[in-house]
């Protein structure tokens, strides 16, 4: 997917904002509307939308946390907010931001306060209250976009729903009788991801509290129960119910009988020696 045209559009939008020496969100909205910038989504791909949106966000964040002029960094923040608010996707794609990038955003907010631009801390507070960020420890660079987006997608889908759909789909019951849900849904990976994300949220809210009032949004970081723990409970409960079901129906014995029949047929056909000779013939032919 070539995102160069989209990134160039973002660069040109922010450049126009900078050239006018603008500093307010109203100025960004004026430039945005004059360029009809919301049409950027008209050319969005039909698949892999997570990658598309996170790439746009990541490119805009680089403007926001760069060492460029104050106006350019402000333009990056305003553009990021507008990209989120104008996206046509439901539910909207949240913005992945690392703790390091959030610290740099904090410095931008402090600088804006010193310059008397009060819309900036108010805007950050609004973004936090709307819970539009996905916090992480790793900066999202060009090489890690796909991998990070895949992890975020897994987390956002809250794989519990996937588990329910798979369990109640009209598929062969034998498959589920032998399914290890912990392995099926990468339980260890999911638990680590949910723990890391919960820790990242706590640290992010702590960082933000140094520049804006976060009293009303502290609950965002309060995880009563991690997604990994919820999934583990479902997995344990499934194992118990599966065992009870097998005992009541004796279905668990059927695969064993099938294996015995298969082994008997194998032995009747000649066992290991016959199979080995047949394999050698196939290898020679190929």
Describe the structure.
With 286 residues, the chain is mainly α. 67% of the residues lie in helices and 3% in strands. A two-stranded parallel ribbon has the order 1-2. Helix 1 packs across helix 2 (25-34) and helix 1 (4-19) packs parallel to helix 3. The longest helix has 23 residues, at 227-249. The protein is globular, with a radius of gyration of 27 Å.
Rg, Cα atoms, Å: 27 Å
Number of strands: 2
**Low-confidence residue ranges:** 170-178, 181-185, 251-259
- Termini separation (Å)? 39 Å
Look at the structure and give the mean pLDDT. Answer: 74
Element layout with pairings:
Layout: H1 4-19, H2 25-34, H3 49-64, H4 70-86, E1 95-98, H5 99-114, H6 119-129, E2 133-136, H7 145-156, H8 160-168, H9 173-177, H10 181-184, H11 187-208, H12 227-249, H13 253-268, H14 271-285
Parallel strand pairs: 1-2
Helix pairs in contact: 1-2, 1-3, 1-4, 2-4, 3-4, 3-7, 5-11, 11-12
Q: What can be said about this structure in brief?
A:
The protein is mostly helical and 286 residues long. It contains 14 helices and two strands. The longest helix has 23 residues, at 227-249.
Keywords:
mainly alpha, two-stranded parallel ribbon, 286 residues
């Amino acid at each position: 997917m070539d995102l160069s045209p989209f990134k160039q559009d973002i660069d040109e939008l922010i450049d126009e904002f900078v050239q006018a020496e603008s500093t307010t969100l109203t100025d960004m909205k004026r430039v945005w509307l004059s360029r009809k910038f919301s049409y950027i989504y008209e050319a969005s791909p039909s698949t892999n939308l997570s990658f598309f949106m996170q790439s746009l966000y990541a490119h805009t964040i680089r403007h926001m946390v760069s060492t460029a002029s104050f106006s350019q960094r402000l333009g990056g923040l305003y553009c990021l907010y507008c990209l989120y608010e104008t996206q046509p996707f439901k539910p909207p794609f949240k913005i992945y931001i690392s703790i390091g990038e959030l610290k740099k955003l904090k410095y931008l907010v402090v600088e804006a306060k010193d310059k008397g631009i009060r819309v900036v801390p108010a805007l950050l507070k609004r973004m936090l209250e709307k819970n539009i960020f996905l916090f992480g420890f790793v900066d999202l660079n060009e090489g890690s976009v796909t991998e990070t987006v895949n992890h975020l997608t897994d987390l956002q889908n809250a794989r519990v729903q996937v588990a329910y759909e798979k369990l109640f789909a009209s598929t062969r019951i034998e498959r589920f009788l032998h399914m290890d849900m912990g392995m099926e849904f990468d339980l260890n990976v999911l638990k680590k991801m949910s723990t890391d994300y919960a820790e990242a949220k706590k640290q992010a809210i702590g960082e933000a509290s140094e520049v804006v009032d976060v009293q009303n949004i502290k609950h965002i970081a309060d995880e009563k129960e991690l997604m990994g723990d919820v999934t583990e409970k479902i997995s344990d409960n499934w194992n118990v119910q599966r065992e009870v079901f097998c005992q009541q129906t004796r279905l668990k014995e059927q695969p064993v009988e099938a294996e015995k029949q298969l082994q008997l047929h194998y032995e009747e056909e000649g066992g290991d020696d016959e199979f080995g000779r047949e394999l050698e013939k196939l290898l020679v032919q190929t």
